[in-house]
Amino acid sequence: MLRLAPWARLRQGFEQGRRRFRAWFPHAPVALVVLLLGLVNLGPVLHLVRIGVFATPLTIPRLTAEAWRSAPRIVAGFLLFGAAGGLLWRSRLSWTVALLLVAATLMLAWRSGAGVPQALTVFNGVVLLALLVFQRDFDRSSLAAGTLFAIVSILLLLGYAVFGAFVLGRGFAPPVTTLTSALYFAVVTMSTVGYGDIVPKSADARFFVMSVIILGITVFATSISAVIVPAMTARMQNLMKGGGKRMMRKNHYVIVGATSLARNTCRELLARHLPVTVVVASAADAGAFGDADVLVGDASDADTLRTAGVPDATAVLALRDDDSENAFTVLAVKELNGATRTVAAVNHGKNMARMHHVRPDLVIAPQVMGGELLAMALNNEELDSETVMRRLFRKGEVDS
Predict the structure, then answer these.
(1) This prediction's pTM
(2) Which of 214, 221, 186, 18 lies closest to 109, judged by CA?
(3) For the residues 13-28, what does the mean pLDDT come to?
(4) Cβ atoms of residues 317 and 300 within 8 Å
(5) Pairing with 109, which of 21, 199, 235, 262 sits 20 to 30 Å away (CA)?
(6) Which residues neighbour 243 within 8 Å (Cβ) at sequence distance 6 or greater?
């Protein structure tokens, strides 16, 4: 049985270990601490249940006051639950929601002073720091998910504000006695307009209004970023790709690399009306492919290859300048779908045998074989089309 060269096995093992590590870090630990913070913020629920079980007519006002005093933390706890789930998918929206919620709960904890344990304040700070440190690892965005989040968040906050203003109506001047007045006050407060015709007088009402303002700013800022940022990102990517169009990635050719060979191959395939997706390492290389479907990412990463539609591709052409990168692209493709044809470029003659060990379906070595063919022509050796094609394109199998 043939084996990879030691250097290739070592690098392959390193790449596989890195991919496994990146499969859960840092998004899984960050999601876990955000989930724990959400559980901590839901702690007042148990306290309220305990008071409610033994409630009497005399303790109902206390229960109401406790409920609305704890409402911001409870709402933030439930929202942190949802944000933790999104963080597992590296969602940029969930990261933004979690960051704003943690900052809001930190402000509420500071405002409450002795009413909140110091350990909770420290834990809030640790979670906030973790979110800031790993912000670049949460970069997946969706316009549909952002729009849905914005609508649901605004409706939940509006319901909270209306119900709270109605229940604490006697704490306002003039008192809020109808749902219409509660809705009016909720909209004015959430928008931070504050006409001043309805003013909170009691301590509970003022604390409630403060929570609505903080949550309102948080929800509106997050909603705007959730809807506008993905749209702007998509627009910028489209501009950087030179106006390229996204196609259905199926039964197509995937070209990896931004070399002259990759560009020429892409141009010729498109001229024959064949579907092509190009994977490049940086956005700066995308503009060279005109209207082709271009994806920016690491071609040795399984997620990037799945996004490029490799499992449904007709063939994958690894045409980068680095022979080792071409080899690892072939290996990654075979891990995803061994039936997809693979073509690998070899730029240095010393790597020809090593590339064969990776077993691509076809090896192309224009720079290596070009020198050999030129020497044969200068030496007046016989050259025919069969000899040229055999030397330029070689099967990937290794001779036993």
Answers:
(1) 0.47
(2) 214
(3) 75
(4) no
(5) 199
(6) 291
